[in-house]
């Protein structure tokens, strides 16, 4: 009988602590990484699902996968000759490629095989959107019009 009453008290204490903990969680919700991870999950693709790769320029590669999925890859450094390369391939130790995943773009320029690391993987709606993003990024920050100042500052006397 005494054991049964001890269990009841223990059960009541645990139940009330859950209720108190639940109310404090409602006031101060714990930030779950689920929202960030879901976005990251969308920015990954499987190498074997790739149907076509095309270099937009020496910094960006457009990828079309099965199920009408499209991605824009940004490489960490400009890959000289990528835009006019003979063959482009994605390689990784695993089948899945995500941002900062140490995956590589491998391409052949003339008779040399070259590699560039993939820095960023973005899911885009289609090729047109990928090209639009590349154009925006080449233009620079909003309001810059993609032009750098080349004139000497005022008061410098043109020296």
Strand-residue proportion = 25-35%
> Averaged pLDDT, please?
74
Secondary-structure element string: HHEEEEEEEEH
The geometry reads as: globular
Unreliable segments of 5+ consecutive residues: 10-41, 146-159
Distance between the termini: 99 Å
How much helical structure, as a percent, in the residues? 25-40%
Over the alpha carbons, how many angstroms does the gyration radius reach? 27 Å
Major sheet characteristics: 6 strands, antiparallel
Number of strands: 8
Q: What is the subunit arrangement here?
A: single chain
Number of helices: 3
- Counting helices, strands and paired strands, the structural category is alpha+beta
The strand line-up of the biggest sheet is 2-3-4-8-7-5
Q: What does the model show?
A:
The protein has 159 residues and is an alpha+beta fold. It has a domain at 38-139. Helices cover 30% and strands 30% of the residues. The chain contains three helices and eight strands, in the order ααββββββββα. It has helices spanning 2-27, 34-42, 127-139; strands at residues 45-46, 50-55, 60-65, 69-75, 87-91, 96-97, 104-109, 112-124. The longest helix is centred in the N-terminal third of the chain and has 26 residues, at 2-27. The protein starts with a helix and ends in a 20-residue tail after the last helix.
Write the layout of secondary structure elements.
Elements: H1 2-27, H2 34-42, E1 45-46, E2 50-55, E3 60-65, E4 69-75, E5 87-91, E6 96-97, E7 104-109, E8 112-124, H3 127-139
Antiparallel strand pairs: 1-6, 2-3, 3-4, 4-8, 5-7, 7-8
